[in-house]
Specification:
Elements (H helix, E strand, L loop, with lengths): L9 E8 L5 H11 L5 H14 L14 H6 L6 E7 L2 E7 L7 H8 L4 E7 L6 H12 L4 E7 L8 H14 L7 E6 L23 H7 L12 E3 L2 E3 L14 E5 L4 E3 L3 E5 L3 E10 L2 E3 L1 E3 L3 E6 L10 E4 L5 E12 L5 E2 L3 E6 L2 E15 L4 E4 L3 E2 L4 E14 L10 E6 L5 E7 L16
Parallel strand pairs: 1-3, 1-4, 4-5, 5-6
Antiparallel strand pairs: 2-3, 7-16, 8-9, 9-15, 10-14, 11-12, 11-16, 12-13, 12-15, 17-23, 17-25, 18-22, 19-20, 19-24, 20-21, 20-23, 24-25
Amino acid sequence: MSSPSHPIDILRFNTSGSVDDGKSTLIGRLLYDSKSLMEDQLDALERSADITGGGQINLANLTDGLRAEREQGITIDVAYRYFSTPRREFIIADTPGHVQYTRNMVTGASNANLSIVLVDARAGVIEQSRRHTCIASLLRIPHLVVAVNKMDLVGWSEERFAEIRDQFEEFLPRLDIKDVKFIPISALLGDNVVEPSTNMPWYAGPTLLSHLETVHIGSDWNLAGFRLPVQWVNRPNNPTDSRLHDFRGFSGQIAGGIVRVGQRVGILPSGLVSTVKEIWTYDGSVAEAFCPQSITLVLEHDVDVSRGNMIVGLDDRPGFTTDVQAKVCWMHQRPLQRGKRYFLKHTSHTVQAIVSEIEHRLDIETLEPQAAPPQLGLNDLGQIRLRLAQPIAFDGYATNRLTGSFILIEQGTNATVAAGMLAPPLEAAKLDGGDYAI
């Protein structure tokens, strides 16, 4: 049904954990041992060995590209790397471990299918381990790998690995993560990263790369409830091609569900209903398409549709309201306060929003909400209520990560100040019962 290069076959994952747990080294090891590096990258690594690695190749340099990152030995910015094996393609987000850069971690993990939380075998489970696991849960990342790193520094101890696994399993039931895998590794030496370790015969599970290649992600996309945020009204008007003469299609990436030729669909905010006449992709006309494909939809009727509108299925309709509740990660030095006004960007639609209530702040250590704080500061996670100038068509983030997420933009500076996850709508959008007619 899909080729290896289709988006549904690409695994997006992020690495997280505390400072110096070995995130960048792990990614470097994955790239190095899977032979995914170009010759110039290998040459650069060897040339920098004496400078940054004490005569040994420093694999972290493959992702820690900023000078400040190399000098301090920490990851500051989010670094993306791409590689592939015969079985799957991968997009990696190397995210910072320091609490100061929680916002960067949220940014890098927002589109991930899988999150790798690294734990230093010597230190065990610490606050940052809980923080990043909690963020993975809040972001509804479907799959989690707890990679217990630096096993070489604890004598490859099975008992230490089991102890850390038990510490995690004490608080995992309080989070909404269904697929969790524990893997003991040494990123520096390569044990259980790409090749199985001979130093840990007691571990019979897959290597990290083997797990990444085989974890099932086909069901991670929401295939119930068709959603097409319109990004562009496509009007080629080519007089030399009869197919493109007076052509009018609505282009965007499917954010949920499946659409078929002949299917009746609704348009929000107008509430009008029409029928799908044609579906076009890069490869030509198709009979059906599904999330997350990019398509151009042609409708039977000459409906008024523009950028920011959403075309939806008549079954399993989204919410449509001006009053929304959401969890947010605050990303700016200036705090979030009640009464502040922002732009809310949701799918392809941007509206003005005002913070009507700050309901609670999340205590990452205890995972308990602290009720009614006066504000949210940099890197805080909390729950707020927003009142919008125009209604938006949305789903709860737990149902659909694409139509349930948004960002807040500061008016005047255009700075992105928050990433948000919408609560489920209280009622579905209303659509006219009959087809559109002039």
